[in-house]
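job 3f2a | input accepted
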Amino acid sequence: MPAPGNAPAIIDSSLDAARQALVDLLDRLTQGIEGSTGTAISGLVIHRILKPYSPHHSVQTPAFGLIAQGSKTVLMGEQTYTYDALNYLLTSVDVPVCGKISAASPQKPYLGLRLDLELDVIAGLIHEMDEADRSVDERSEICRAVNVHRLDRPLLDAVQRLLHLLDTPADIPVLAPMIKREIFYRLLGSSHRLRQIALHDSQTQRIAKAIRLLREQYDQPLSIEAIARGVHMSSSSLHHHFKAITSMSPLQFQKQLRLQEARRLLFVDDLDIALAARRVGYESASQFSREYSRFCGNAPSRDKRRWLGEEERV
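job 3f2a | predicted structure (314 res):
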């Protein structure tokens, strides 16, 4: 039997070589492109970032995110997640996050990918794996909306095969669904949290439904009681599980949705501050400005000037 101290070195060496192959592959596929780019494979986005960027607010949807080179920090509510090469991020429900690329340069760009989770495929896999009837304890288990995991070789191999399909577009319609299914299977094997996403009547499923209701009604006055009834939970149970999964209360969650949409309205649709505030549900422009400043670090007018590159010199 090999000495315990020798095994990790062999595994690490193998993974490091495979990671370098992934870096080379993504570097080639993203040559001449900067930013995040959709691909011919449905749900697959590849990234090439040449410099660190300031924190970016967005709503993260269920996805598998993998870094080949560089590092990234993601903030969700009160939780901070930092991951780098050979780690992956798994997001189980729609959740507002703040992301920041912390290591990238023209000489060594941030390279990575994102693959949307197909919950119907995952549910089918669970059924085939005889996991449909989980224990009561597992159905009621509370899992964070965002988690970081260590990548293993079988999953990395499947990811590389999926990316190689971009070189042979004619193969994508037949082979991409098969390889994505394998990736989801590998994720199920390495993370019981993924089962919570697709298990019917799990706490994660109920909170996912509550999040959908909040996203549909983010500009309306919040009624915890109505949302709780809609997902068949008590108000106290909804609040408890919502905070446990998203690191935010439903009110904090709604506030982030409102402020992210307001920022989009200001920057993209060029609305004035008062109209943007009303559009997302604020009756008081002064309250909106205070909360926007806390959320974004600048008052709305100053934030917009910075975004347009017109920040006045001090």
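job 3f2a | Residues 186 and 292 are 41 Å apart (CA to CA).
job 3f2a | closed
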